[in-house]
Amino acid sequence: QVQLVEFGGGLVQAGGSLRLSCAASGLTFSSYAMGWFRQAPGKEREFVAVISWSGGRSSYSDSVKGRFTISRDNAKNTVYLQMNSLKSEDAAVYYCAAQFRRGLVPSPARAQYDYWGQGTQVTVSS
To answer: Is residue 107 helix, strand or coil?
Structure first.
């Protein structure tokens, strides 16, 4: 079956960096756009970033643009999220998700994603 497993969460000071990884199995990874979402306590799960199946296109939420970078390695079935200049408002559980390739531009809409990981906690201390 399909599995998405996130790694790399933890505690970091404000202004610091973390790199999250998500290892995928049970699917043809290169046929899926991959996204990162996050959910803070009491809030809706929100879009963070997405990268196309080939890695040629990516998009970000306004709140992380310029600080976070999404990338993927199709040979390793892994997607990454490099998070720099972390702020207290970035603290959340981060989820990776897979969206089957339906067009050239991957969607940031939560409902368009077919598979989800279990999440990894990111805590930012001020």
So the answer is: coil
pLDDT digits (tens, 9 = 90+) for 14-66: 999 999 999 999 999 999 999 999 999 999 999 999 999 999 999 999 999 99
Phi-psi region of 29 (alpha: psi -120 to 50; beta: other; left: phi over 0): alpha
Amino acid at 57: R
Mode of pairing for the β-strands spanning 120-125 and 92-100 = antiparallel
> Per residue, what are the HEC states of 26-90?
CCCHHHEEEEEEEECCCCCCEEEEEECCCCCCEEECCCCCCCEEEEEECCCCEEEEEECCCCHHH
Q: Percent of the chain at pLDDT above 90?
A: 95
Q: Which two tokens stand for residue 66?
A: 């310029």
Region at 77 (left for phi over 0; alpha for psi -120 to 50; beta for the rest)? left
The yes-or-no verdict on residue 125 having pLDDT over 90 is yes
**The two structure tokens encoding residue 121:** 């906690």
Give the torsion sign (CA, 78, 68, 85, 109).
negative
